[in-house]
Amino acid sequence: MLPLMLVLFMSTLDQTIVVTALSNIGALLGNATTTPWIATAYLLTSAVTTLIFGKLGDMYGRKKVLQLSIVIFLTGSILCAFAPSMLLLIIFRGFQGIGGGALSTLVMAIVGELVPSRGRAKYQATLGLVPAIALLAGPVLGGLIVDYLSWPWIFLINVPVGIIAFSIIALKLQLPVLNSNKRVDISGGLLAIVFTTSFLLISVFGGHAYNWDSWQTIGLGLVGIFALRLYIYVEQRAVEPITPLRLFKDPVFSISSALFLLSTAMLFVGMLFIPQMLQNIFHLSAFAAGSCIVPLLFGLIVATMVTGHVISKTGRYKLFPIIGSLFCTFTFLALGYLSQTTAIWLIIILLIILGGGVGLFIQVTLLAGQNTVTQSDLGVATGTLNFFKNFGGAAGAAVFGAIFATASKHHNHFITAYHSVFLSAIPLAIVALLLAIIMKEKALSETTREIAEGKIEVPEY
């Protein structure tokens, strides 16, 4: 369990430790407006590899696929640490995400393979603490590293942890070596990267770097539409599709996917821009700004745990995303009108409310989506929902990064640019509210109740 816990800690930590370093990285590499792409590139590639590498583990054995993922992740970490420019750092983060997207999925699948179902609950409880600790520790540790060392160390810290985990896994972990004749849907995964990247680039550069009627914007749109059409064609005919389109015939699953995307986008608005605002406007240190993100993550974790417990007891879940969307709307509205004299304790309260609002979405969207499929489709349905979760984070970072860059050019004061970001996030919460209202509440199956109670583990593809 120790090396698996190290891998899970490392992969989760990397998603939050970079948050408090973005302002410092932007200042040193000379391009602060593109810093959100440091997170976007990682989330974009990890969204797809979460699906592909999980399937590879099923087909060829999880041990060697996990080891390959660790090697890719560590290589990407080293490249990021020594990146001489913002462009190369973004490219290397995308490469790091190829390995990072597979780590948590493979760890949970390996636990499911090693531990009998009756004894799995205590191991899940132990593993469940690891990402929670990593989420809370990431912003604080990132702030300490930036203040007392330098930003490359937020990536280099992965190397010793990864080497120890890789070595123990190589020596101690014994799993069967598989050799499947089935083909992995690599073409579907590559097409998913093409159309998602195309649409993200349009949202970033359209109307900003390039006019909406420019050949660059139109060309990206045509590439995205063609890749999406081809993706649908490939998935309809693939023997083992990474995204079975039949899942979306159920409107509850479709709405759950959309809510997962919207809630993660709102989360990343808070995680990426509030630490930067606290450093640039309120002149807090990286450590202090990172520490202020802990209340947001704390609110998210508590809300997720509470909703999971209530849903497992009552079977009712429709009300939670409605309340969550109202929490998020209120928070973004308040953040959109704060001033340089606003007390830090008030911002912390707003962060707790935002985290709680997003937390009210996460458990509901996952369980509602899982509740629409059969037992045999639970794994692939969970993987599809996780894809929308990761893509939501990438889209949130990219789109609102573009909004911030545009607002920064047109206003002399940074605080006005941050106001633009937070107020622009309100429509996401309103759309989420409308979707939550129209989503039908289905009675939870026994399997879904057991998932909510943590009694069974769902393989993530």
Description:
By secondary structure, the protein is mostly helical. It has two domains: 1-185, Growth Hormone, Chain: A (Up-down Bundle); 250-454, Up-down Bundle (Growth Hormone, Chain: A). The protein contains 18 helices and no strands. It has helices at residues 2-17, 22-29, 36-60, 62-81, 86-114, 120-148, 153-156, 158-172, 186-205, 215-237, 251-280, 286-314, 319-335, 344-370, 378-410, 414-424, 426-438, 446-452. The longest helix has 33 residues, at 378-410. It is globular and about 60 Å long. It starts with a helix and ends in a 9-residue tail after the last helix. The model is unreliable at 117-121 (pLDDT under 50).
Write down the overall geometry: globular
Instruction: Please mark out the parts with pLDDT under 50 across 5 or more consecutive residues, or reply none.
Output: 117-121
| End-to-end Cα distance | 21 Å
Q: Write down the CATH class of the largest domain.
A: Mainly Alpha
Q: Which structural class best describes the helix and strand composition?
A: mainly alpha
Question: CATH H level of the largest domain: which superfamily?
Answer: MFS general substrate transporter like domains
Radius of gyration, in Å, reads 21 Å
Main sheet characteristics: none
The secondary-structure element order is HHHHHHHHHHHHHHHHHH
The number of helical runs is: 18
How many individual β-strands?
Answer: 0
How many structural domains are formed by the residues? Answer: 2
Percent helix: over 70%
Instruction: Give the name of the CATH architecture of the largest domain.
Output: Up-down Bundle
Range of strand content: under 5%
Average of pLDDT: 78
What would you call the quaternary organization?
A: single chain
